[in-house]
Write a structure and sequence with these properties.
Blueprint: H1 4-15, H2 21-33, H3 35-54, H4 60-73
Amino acid sequence: MLKCKDIAHEASDYVEHHQHWWRRLLFRLHLFLCANCRRFVRHLRLTRQFIRRRGAPASPQEVEQVLSQVESRHGGSTGAQ
């Protein structure tokens, strides 16, 4: 039987389906019995989904382009002093 410590160490492999079928079965058995580990794995999945949906940050060129557009719309004054 896996321990909570094992779940914490292997949660990423479980979520990414990088475990052998037998280890995955033991992992699921532990999750069935342990509400805290279920919560931990659920939060890990949600965090990964959030990061994937968030997308890549804007490049410096994209930031400059947006700032230029804002400045041109406001007559060169962005309100910054």
